[in-house]
Structures are given as C-alpha cells and as structure tokens.
Design a protein that fits this description.
The protein has twelve helices and 13 strands. It is α/β, with parallel strands linked by helices. The protein has a seven-stranded parallel beta sheet, with helices on both faces. Helix 2 runs parallel beside helix 3 and helix 4 crosses helix 5. The chain starts with a helix and ends with a strand.
C-alpha cells in the first residue's frame, strides 16, 4: 500500500511543490532553503536531541504557541525544534523566541531519513491532524515517539478515511498517542480502529493562548479611530469564500440605520494582508458603501476583536456579538 502511495506522491509532487514555491505578492519566499524539503537540513546549534513540533502552516503555529511556552517553562534546557511546510508558517514561527525552525521534509522516506540523521529528535509532536504515511513510518522506525496534539476529526473526514481504511491503518499503527480536542473526535478515532488506550481528550490548546489584552496600544488606537461606529470583523478569510457567503450575509444582518459601519478582514494568508478598500453591504435589497480594512497579520485578528460588535469566522456564516 505504501509503495502505491509513494508512486502516486511522486507523480503529484511537482505540482504540490509548484504551489508551495510559486511567488505571490506578500508571500514570503522559501529561497535557498528549498533543499530542506528534501531532507538536506542544517544541523542545530545544540547537540542535544530536540523536542520536535510540526505545525504545517500559520494556524497550527499559532495553536502551538501555548505548547511551546509550557515546554520552555517545564524544560528550560531542552532544544525545541518547530517545522513548518509553508513559508507563511515559517514567517510566524521565526517570531517565536527560543526555538529553532526548519522546513518539514516532504513525505518521501529518503527526505525524512536525511532530516532525522541531521537533527535526531527525541519525540515528534504533530499539531492537529497533519499525518503522512512515509513520515510516520520512518520516524517510528527510528524509535522516535509520535504524539498527535489538538487533533480534530470530523464526521466527513472519518467517513473519508473509512473508504481508504488500509491507508489510515498505515498511519495509525505508527502513532503512539492522539490528544483530541473533543470527545466526539476521540470516538471517531476509536471507530477507525485506534486503540482506546492510545486516545484521550485534552481540549483545544487554542484556549490556552494568553487572554487578549483589551488595553493593548493597538486596540486603544483602533477604538479611538472608530469611535462609536459599529465594527464587525471577518476573521481568517480566504479569497472568494467570504465574498460568496459570510461577508454579504454579515452586512445583511446589520441594522439598516448603521450607515457608517467599519469592517475589518483578518486574512488567513500573508499575501492578503495590508489592503484597504470599499466593501458593499446588503440591506434588504439596498446597497450601502462601507470602509473595509484588511489586517496586516494573518491568524491574528485579536486586536480587531477587542473592538468589534459582530464577527464572522472563516468559511461559515456564524455570527458572534459582543
């Protein structure tokens, strides 16, 4: 099964890498570090075996911050290595103090073996459900324990894995433990055949992020700028998705008399940051012009939530009032 998977991956890899390396406005460049994706990874400054945390991109890196802080407090002399797949994730990781960053090798056994030879981690902590068959098998063969943290598994994903159960079995047999966000997630992993003893519920690590400081200087400045005008936030936006669903609906639900709304989009990717423009709100068939600000930091809408009256998050049309 792994041989067939690897052959298919070899065919798909050029297209996957093209998307990873393609230049876009505002997107950080991988540059000469592209060789790290093939296992040619620079060694660490310390000779100690690091605690390895894999966080594929921006959201996972942010989710990993409380874990990193807790590890640094509990094990101050340990080296913490964070790997990301994307350049946007690397950009966020580079701002975390006290860690080493490397790019994650792509899911070929030779690349993962090269990574392990150079860095020799003592444990692998995978944020959320970023599971790759060759990586897990190679890491397990090297006697490195694998723990999946902050794991989610939707009903739809579970049914998808059931259709390719042999492939999921390749993944699950090389995982030592799965820490799930919710009981429903844990039950779905068990349904797929993961032993109950290897599954537990730890809650979402995003709730362990430090409380938002509403007195933050940036929030105070934003409040002064907006005054009493109603503010709504579209968080973690993706090009095209919010346009067709959440954004127009959010405006629709605003009261018609609020003709001076202030909108803020907090993008999911770096290349969508730092723009301002005119947004259109739909009010029972009537169109109103609104000022929309595009936030500079993807995955970090907190300063805007410090002032918002309503929020729409990601791809779903759910509304949260202050």
């Amino acid at each position: 099964m792994r041989i067939l998977y690897t052959l298919l991956l070899a065919l798909a890899a050029p297209f996957l890498l093209l998307g990873l390396y393609r230049a876009k406005d505002g997107k950080p460049k991988v540059g000469k570090r592209w060789v790290e994706h093939f296992g040619f990874t620079p060694t660490l400054a310390s000779e100690k075996r690091p605690i390895w945390i894999h966080a594929v991109s921006v959201g996972e890196v942010i989710a990993a911050k409380p874990v990193i802080a807790a590890l640094q407090k509990a094990y101050p002399h340990e080296t913490i290595l964070v790997t990301t797949t994307t350049a946007t994730g690397a950009d966020i990781a580079s701002k975390i103090a006290g860690i080493e960053h490397r790019y994650m090798p792509i899911d070929f056994a030779f690349a993962v073996r090269g990574f392990l030879r150079r860095l020799n981690p003592k444990i692998l902590l995978i944020m959320e459900t970023e599971l790759w068959p060759n990586t897990l098998a190679t890491v397990k063969k090297a006697s490195v324990p694998v723990v999946v943290m902050n794991a989610r598994l939707s009903e739809k994903s579970m049914k998808g894995y059931q259709r390719v159960q042999p492939l999921f079995n390749l993944l699950s047999k090389n995982i030592d433990h799965v820490l799930c966000q919710f009981e429903e997630d844990a039950q779905r992993f068990v349904t797929l055949g993961v032993p109950q003893s290897k599954v537990s519920v730890s809650g979402s690590v995003k709730f362990d992020l430090p409380p938002f400081d509403a007195s933050d200087e940036a929030v105070t400045a934003l409040k002064a700028q907006c005054g009493e005008r109603p503010v709504w936030v579209a968080a973690s936006t993706i090009r095209g998705k919010m346009k067709s669903c959440s954004m127009p609906t959010a405006f629709y639900w605003r009261k018609p008399q609020h003709t001076d709304d202030v909108g803020a989009k907090t993008p999911r990717t770096l290349q969508r940051r730092g723009r301002t423009g005119q947004g259109k709100g739909l009010y029972a068939g009537k169109t109103q012009q609104r000022r929309v600000h595009h936030a500079a930091n993807p995955g970090l809408p907190w300063r805007y939530h410090g002032r918002n009256d309503e929020a729409v998050c990601s791809l779903r049309c759910h509304f949260y009032g202050r």
